[in-house]
Design a protein that fits this description.
single chain; 173 residues; mainly beta; Immunoglobulin-like; 2 domains; four-stranded antiparallel β-sheet; 53% strand
Length: 173
């Protein structure tokens, strides 16, 4: 899943289930809305032996508006017809939601209090590599940032829809 104009990686996994090596070259993704940024990365012929696999990595920018797109993966096969296969790419501009699920009624000077955050992913797929940063006037937050490797998509049981994170907050003047 991509956010509009986000850069990311699409990986195509190829497997040779035959009994002889296959020569492959010129992999590409064809779509007006998905821009391949590393088009010249695979300029030589690569061989996949029988029972072996190969991954082709495309660094892309997803430029379309929200929706599901199917860029065509193509790759030349030495001495045979080309491989052509549509690859599903979803673009979703829905923002992750964060809210305060519990906090003290007031914050006293030089006292450490806890604030619980609820972070929710309303998108149709998981959101990976999220960095939550905190800031505010006159507030010291520890830690100032927190990494979340993956936030799952709905539907899953409502009691699991949020990620709870307690953070100590002290106010200094």
């Amino acid at each position: 899943m991509f956010y509009p104009y986000e850069k990311g990686t699409i990986t195509v996994h190829l497997a040779n289930s035959g009994t002889t090596s296959i020569g492959l070259s010129e992999p590409d993704l064809l779509d007006n809305n998905i821009n391949v940024l590393n088009k010249k990365s695979y300029q030589s012929v690569s061989y996949i032996g029988p029972g072996s696999t190969m991954d082709v990595f495309f660094i892309v920018s997803a430029d379309p508006s929200d929706g599901t797109y199917f860029p065509l993966f193509t790759m030349a096969v030495k001495g045979a017809s080309s491989i052509r296969y549509p690859v599903k790419v979803q673009v979703d501009s829905t923002d992750i939601r964060a809210s305060v699920s519990s906090k003290p009624d007031n914050f006293a000077i030089s006292r450490i209090d806890t604030v619980n955050l609820c972070i929710t992913n309303p998108c149709d797929g998981p959101v990976n590599n999220v960095l939550v940063t905190t800031s505010g006037p006159g507030v010291d937050v520890s830690p100032s940032e927190s990494f979340i490797s993956s936030i799952r998509e709905p539907p899953f049981p409502s009691r699991l829809k949020s990620l709870q994170a307690s953070r100590a907050i002290s106010r200094s003047m």
